[in-house]
Amino acid sequence: MDPRTLSPQFAVSPQITPQDIPALKAQGYRAIIANRPDGEGADQPTFAEIEAAAHAAGMQARYIPISGGMVGDDDVEAFRSALRAVPGPVLAYCRSGTRSATLWSLAQADDMPLPQILAATSTAGYDLSGVVRRIANGGRTPVARPDATHDVVIVGAGAAGISVAASLLSRKPGLDIAIIDPADVHYYQPGWTLVGAGVFTADQTAKDLASLIPSGVTLIKGAVAAFEPASNAVILEGCRVVGYERLVVCPGLKLDWARIPGLVETLGQNGVTSNYRYDLAPYTWKLVQAMRRGRAIFTQPPMPIKCAGAPQKAMYLSGDAWHRAGVLKDIDIQFMNAGGVLFGVKDYVPALMNYVRKYDATLNFFHNLVRIDGPARTAWFDVAAPDTPVRRVEVAFDMIHVTPPQTAPDFIRVSPLADAAGWVDVDQATLRHKTHDNIWSLGDVMNAPNAKTAAAARIQAPVVAENIAADIDGRPACAQYNGYGSCPLTVERGKIVLAEFGYGGKLLPSFPKALIDGTRPSRAAWLLKERILPPVYWRGMLRGHEWMAKPNNTSAP
């Protein structure tokens, strides 16, 4: 007997015996569903024996046999009806548990998101990739053929997706490209730090998504539910199927606000804010302007996160505003970092530490936000310093800027494209999938060890476009990504420490040191961030103009 939980009210198991029933009863199960036909195995007890033992234990039992693993639509409806009729928790069994897990997945299809279903069954040890389309289709057998097929399908219409589409078209005019995304608005997310500092307004960072899609590219409004790389297909919610010759995956990250108990309920009020959300960045500036004394907390969760410098950027710009207002001496700035260093590339740390001292900020390393009570203005952190037991500390605040935990989206983490940690598994030089030769990935969702920034996507997009074009022509991959990322660390209004680096923390400056020395605060770098980079983004990157981003073509390793 090996019960495997799929939900609080349901578990599956390989074949059970009448002797197992008392133990199942003791574990809290109140009903049994048998999905294995009688006589399938020589040593298999009959359903009548299981039913008698169940009734003797005061449990209910149902018999829904599935022959040869062929689950029909009528079987799913019978299983769904049985789940509604019997008391839970319920244990269903067959020879290995797979048929029972399949029935449950199809029965839940109308009530539970596909990624959540796949995550539950995968955790229990069952691979249901063969029925993904049926789950997406509400548990019913779908039409096998794709609704549409394109030369290149791009998942995600963020900075990475639009840029790679534009770069591809510049190399292959007339290529049939489709971009899949459910959004209506496209955001210039690097601008949100400056919205939170009163430099930009929020509406300067948003544009209608459809207006940014390159001419000739099809925008498919929809959310991806799953991938079928063996069939060259993407499954959308509602079971629309989009086929492809080549696939690019770049949907960005999931901001997991709900992982911190109490956070969702208090965001945007009670002094709780975040520059990681379009609607909250203006609240950050409102709080900074209003604050004249008290404690301000700035949090940073475990890596990876998008723009790893953004949590401290909020701290520096807030500290600068309080310094200019003459109230800094009355404000206690606390930086709570789940990691052990201020910044991952040591060359930039001395300049940053000068500003930590200027704003009299306290650095608290290994502090991870785990709970928040907005009305009580209290936050709790787990302190996990090396070689010491984890301890929990309670900290009161007047204002708190929260950087949420971040993961790959659910539909990526449970997909056959992901590595063990849930990120799209690519070669870090060519950005081609390690297993599926006609799939590439870029942006925040892939597993190359680079900083997750828009500047990184600006360099990655031409690399992916160049390598897809080479593949179309039958040539080997010739463009390589060096891990470039950029983090303009806004240390005060008017000055930036321009961090530019690649794999292994190697410095990769874009400008002569005499113009911009990235290891020192610079007004020229601020001008770049405030005045030059936004138009480069809107008018260059998203239109396929590879200004300072053309890949160096070399032989692939």
UniProtKB/TrEMBL annotation:
Entry-linked CDD domains: PTP-bact (cd14503)
Gene Ontology process terms (BP): sulfide oxidation, using sulfide:quinone oxidoreductase
Domain FAD/NAD(P)-binding: 150-268
Ranges for domain Beta-lactamase hydrolase-like protein phosphatase-like: 2-109
Named cofactor requirement(s): FAD
GO molecular function: FAD binding; hydrolase activity; quinone binding; sulfide:quinone oxidoreductase activity
Name of the molecule in the record: TIGR01244 family phosphatase
Gene source species: Paracoccus haeundaensis
